[in-house]
Write a structure and sequence with these properties.
Structural class of chain B: mainly alpha
Largest sheet of chain B: 4 strands, parallel
Number of strands of chain B: 7
Radius of gyration of chain A: 21 Å
CATH class of chain A: Mainly Alpha
Chains: A mainly alpha (about 170), B mainly alpha (about 525), C mainly alpha (about 325)
Number of domains of chain B: 2
Oligomer: heterotrimer
Shape of chain A: elongated
Number of helices of chain B: 22
Largest sheet of chain A: none
Distance between the termini of chain A: 58 Å
Chain lengths: ~170, ~525, ~325
């Protein structure tokens, strides 16, 4: 990506973020989106705060000159998707926000050459693919939790019934 | 997660906001993963609850008994006459909205009907329509509505999405307590046999067998053997708990969850070690083997019926006073309800610590002392030899339980113990602890597995604060004084903040307690190697 | 929707008084009959509601504790937020009623987050609520000058303080400005904050418009359409001493006064049937006005009744052999 495009988009970062954040909020009931929008309140409004922070970090990473740091992208995405995975949305709705960024970029970065935008879009695709993995991981985790909980709950009973035992040491 | 229902053309749509209808005109949608399974009729019949029947929350037909509206309205009238709190809270709300964003379920779900004010309005609207002049005449203008099947379903859905944590009540200018309203709502749904299995099962078990898990007496003692064995492995000392022993000075009551569920079991081991080291003349009871009280999440009467066992057993065994273990709602009940229900406890004596001689004047009528009060007093008087360096691998934070903080005020006692048992203690942000603490998300009998998403959402505000201290201070242990917390937060941490474990305060005590004649410790109570001591075996 | 309905309801009330007095010459009805009726409804209604609340007992001791309990002598108790004495409760209630402490707690929560406050609504709610209620009270007290022949010194002092800015003639009362702005704010937040709009009922907008109407007519009367103040005072004195005013006196007061008085009458008559009863209710809230001493002193539930329990004997009968097998002592072998 050329320096010009990056500068252009970086200058518009706050507008980009605002639009992107609004798109995520559209999946919530309108009575609540006003509340969630108060994203500065880390502890009073953890959902709004975490999502807005996450989006900002993602955007920063996306607009880097260097290759994206996949580790960093994953960990940021994780904080958002972990929330989305337990909320009342379908998988498609939960992850749509990644794809929606394309539209936001095209609208805000209107003057940028289209090959530049395409380069950005392929980065967004990479983010989307990671999102799928993370979403599935979260969902699987939830089923794990249910099983673990049952096991924890009755651990001593299982032990008593000799259904579990410690692996004997050497 | 919602069921996958989106069609391709719907995916392209940006705006899936619900239509802008008023809340009265938005019918309830019973969503998967947000509710618990219905109670089995047999469980309800065991304790003589009315209208036990087979039904499923997501069925259209709930098979309600005939004249159910009359049952509810008469029940409501009865409750309005019995509880000033109920009548007052139905009348005086000005809908200022101060409580709206204080509820962990609202914060985590975004569902507007989870705002405490609106959850209460679900019932107020019916109250106005049937019990106030203005509501009867002006109907909707006065915010009144009729009691219909849909309204009943809405009640059920949202009153079983409230953990009676009382956080809203802290911020309300009139102290309106949603917990009171939820309790009334649950009393009413219970009249129609609309209870949940996760509550009704433990209630029936506790009634017949003395504890929520339905453990029979011989199971309790033999399971305790495991603890005794493990403690011997760790310390080389064999502790010797007694059961139903007449003439003991103290009866010890704790939630049964801690006898079987990890990590609560380690807290139970902590108790055993502490009492042994003190040489305390105490006994467990298999009849009163439950400190918790899921009856409290059904009806006031049921709660009293279950609670009666504690005083009855104390009287039968002839103990002087009662000591209670770490538990949240158990302590709300002991502190605010037990004496009123089943007192006066004139067969007991005002509690005095046999070790320090401290008189627990704050418990002089109810005659039951919280173990955190008891242990804090021991430490203050230097009666315990503690080696906090054994907990040096832990960076600990403390979660205040809703009930002990907002229904009692037990804030400093556990902190004092932790600070003496650990060298690394970090508080979570100020507006997420003490009286402003966030619920674990699974209280009031909502810790089932079928509603896991509800629990995780409701648990997020708490987990988010833990994450903060985890990131800033490396906190890896979340201590608390509640059995439900120990189970629920373990799950919540596993999802939201992996790497943070959960423990009871007395597990920390058990780990650092230097017992007379103990061997060099190489393991903690979880039988995991103690860092820095591995090589010494 | 609710706000539009409430708005037009208040407009209709204004019109009723206007038409009734200016076209129908019903000064006596609006100046004497309705005020008396309103006061009777207010007093009996208020008492009835309070007695109704009082008729339901407080079966359990359920204060919401917002601080450290009284336990061990060396642990510092929070004597106000977790009171163990009546004095503590009195202080807690006084702070609640006079300063809206719980709403303020809301604000404190925000500040403690330490970040730039972009969301100052909680602060404004507290401030506007406080400003509104206090100016309402001061205005009420100021109005006593109409009911007492020789205006007492305390009231004169309040008037003096209230107009210390010395603006305009007649002097501008600060509370007039404050109450109008505070009520306007309380209305706007209901309209513009999605959450609050969602929970608002017509019954929330109606009192706001009504109070706005009362304050507005009062302001108009004092600063713009001057009415015969001596006449008003004579009428007011007559009303409180049950002297029937003559027709000439009634006709000599401007119509705006009757609109003002009619809205006030409606306000008082409406009071006992509405959420405005929070004025009485705040004192009776068991989560705030109770002493947290339930383990020190037994709280009595007047309707406590015996319940069916599963006794120890029944339990032992169920498990005797198992208990003996496990070495647990039993009552009967």
């Amino acid at each position: 990506m050329s320096r010009d495009v990056r500068d252009l988009l970086s200058r518009k970062k706050s507008a980009l973020l605002e639009r992107w954040f609004d798109i995520v909020l559209e999946t919530y009931p309108s009575e609540s989106s006003g509340f969630l929008k108060n994203k500065k309140r880390q502890f009073a409004n953890p959902v709004g705060y975490t999502i807005s922070q996450g989006l900002e970090d993602l955007l920063d990473e996306l607009l880097q000159e260097r290759e994206m740091d996949i580790e960093k992208v994953s960990s940021v995405l994780d904080s958002i998707i972990r929330i989305r995975a337990v909320q009342d949305v379908t998988p498609s709705q939960a992850l749509a926000f990644v794809f929606r960024l394309k539209k936001v970029l095209r609208e805000e970065g209107g003057t940028a050459p289209s090959e530049e935008i395409e380069a950005l879009e392929s980065r967004i695709d990479a983010i989307a693919l990671i999102s799928f993995d993370l979403f599935m991981k979260c969902r699987e985790k939830i089923y794990d939790l249910k099983a673990n909980e049952l096991r924890n709950m009755t651990f001593r009973l299982l032990q008593k019934a000799k259904l579990v035992c410690e692996i004997p040491g050497e | 997660m919602a069921k996958f229902t989106a069609k391709p053309d719907e995916l392209a749509k940006i705006d899936f906001r619900p239509p802008r209808t008023g809340w009265m005109d938005t019918p309830v949608e019973i969503k998967e993963h947000m509710f618990c399974h219905a109670a089995k009729p047999k469980e309800l019949e065991t304790v003589g609850f009315p209208n036990a029947h087979e039904w499923r929350p997501n069925d259209e037909d709930w098979k309600l008994p005939e004249n159910w509206e009359r049952t509810i309205l008469e029940g409501m009238k009865d409750l309005l006459g019995k509880y000033r709190s109920f009548r007052l809270f139905m009348d005086i709300c000005v809908r200022c909205g101060a409580c709206a964003d204080k509820c962990h379920f609202y914060i985590g779900t975004g569902d507007p009907k989870n705002m405490p004010v609106l959850r209460a309005e679900l019932m107020r609207s019916v109250y106005r329509g049937n019990f106030t002049l203005a509501g009867k005449i002006l109907r909707k203008i006065a915010g009144a509505r009729d009691l219909t099947v849909n309204v009943l379903k809405e009640w059920w859905y949202y009153f079983y999405q409230c953990t009676e944590c009382r956080r809203c009540s802290v911020f309300c200018p009139y102290g309106i307590d949603q917990a009171e309203i939820t309790m009334m709502g649950r009393e009413l749904t219970n009249l129609l046999g609309l209870n949940i299995g996760w509550i009704a099962g433990p209630v029936a078990a506790c009634y017949m067998k003395g504890n929520h898990l339905g453990l029979e007496p011989h199971t309790i003692t033999s399971s305790m053997e495991f603890f005794v064995d493990d403690i011997e492995t760790i310390t080389g000392i064999r502790v010797n708990p007694t059961f139903n022993r007449k003439g003991a000075e103290i009866l010890f009551v704790t939630p049964s969850g801690d006898l079987f569920a990890n990590p609560g079991t380690y807290t139970a081991m902590g108790y055993l070690m502490l009492f042994h080291e003190l040489g305390l003349d105490y006994t467990w009871s298999t009849y009163a083997s439950e400190g918790g009280n899921f009856g409290f999440f059904t009806t006031n009467e049921m709660a009293k019926r279950l609670n009666s066992k504690i005083y009855a057993e104390a009287k039968r065994l002839g103990v002087k006073w009662i000591l209670g273990g770490e538990c949240g709602h158990m302590w709300r009940i002991i502190h605010q309800y037990m004496d009123t229900w089943n007192g006066p406890a004139d067969f007991l004596e005002a509690p005095v610590s046999p070790i320090t001689g401290t008189r627990f004047d704050n418990a002089k009528a109810t005659r039951m002392v919280h173990i955190a009060e008891f242990t804090a007093d021991l430490i203050r008087h230097g009666k315990l030899k503690l080696d906090p360096s054994r907990n040096d691998h832990l960076k600990v934070t403390f979660h205040d339980s809703c009930n002990t903080s907002r229904g009692m005020g037990l804030l400093e006692e556990p902190r004092y113990i932790i600070k003496n048992a650990c060298n690394h203690f970090y508080e979570m942000p100020e507006d997420t602890i003490r009286e402003k603490t966030f619920c674990c998300g699974s209280g009031t009998g909502l810790n089932a597995s079928e509603n896991m998403e509800l629990r995780l959402r409701g648990g997020f505000p708490r987990a988010n604060a833990v994450k903060h201290v985890n990131e800033h201070h490396g906190v890896n242990m979340l201590a608390n004084v509640c059995a439900i917390d120990r189970a629920a937060l373990t799950t919540s941490m596993d999802y939201w903040v992996p790497g943070v474990s959960v423990c009871g305060v007395h597990e920390l005590v058990g780990n650092v307690l230097v017992m007379k004649g103990e061997k060099e410790r190489t393991q903690d109570l979880r039988l995991e190697p103690l860092p820095g001591k591995e090589g010494n075996e | 929707m609710g706000s539009i309905f409430a708005f037009f309801a208040v407009i209709a009330l204004v019109l009723i008084a206007f038409v009734g007095v200016s076209a129908g010459n019903m000064q006596y009805l609006f100046g004497v009959v309705i005020p008396y009726a309103a006061m009777i409804i207010f007093i009996t209604g208020f008492i009835f509601r309070v007695l109704k609340w009082g008729s339901s007992p407080v079966p359990f001791c359920i204060p919401t504790t917002c601080g450290q309990q009284k336990s061990l002598p060396w642990i510092k108790q929070n004597k106000i937020d977790n009171p163990s004495t009546t004095i503590g409760v009195v202080v807690r209630m006084a702070l609640e009623v006079l300063l809206f402490r719980s709403l303020f707690r809301n604000l404190k929560t925000q500040l403690s987050e330490g970040q730039r406050i972009v969301y100052g609504e909680a602060k404004w709610l507290w401030l506007a609520g406080l400003a509104f209620h206090w100016s309402f009270l001061i205005i009420l007290v100021r109005h006593l000058r109409f009911f007492i022949q020789k205006v007492p010194v305390p009231i004169q002092m309040i008037e003096g303080l209230d107009s210390f800015l010395q603006i305009g003639a007649p002097l501008l009362y600060i509370t007039d400005v404050v109450i109008l702005s505070a009520v306007t704010y309380l209305f706007l937040r209901r309209v513009f904050m999605p959450q609050v709009r969602y929970i608002s009922l017509p019954a929330d907008y109606f009192p706001l418009f009504l109070i706005l109407g009362i304050a507005a007519t009062g302001v108009l009367m004092r600063y713009f359409f001057k009415v015969n103040v001596t006449g008003v005072k004579e009428l007011a004195m007559g009303l409180v001493s049950f002297i029937n005013p003559d027709a000439k006196l009634l006709e000599g007061i401007g119509v705006i006064f009757y609109i003002h008085l009619f809205l006030i009458s409606i306000f008082f008559a409406y009071f006992p049937f509405s959420k405005l009863m929070h004025m009485g209710g705040v004192f009776m809230s068991p989560t705030r006005n109770m002493v947290n001493n339930s383990r020190m002193k037994r709280h009595i539930n007047p309707w406590n009744y015996p319940v069916k329990v599963h006794t120890y004997d029944e339990y032992e009968d169920d498990f005797r052999e198992k208990m003996k097998g496990a070495g647990i002592p039993v009552e009967r072998e």
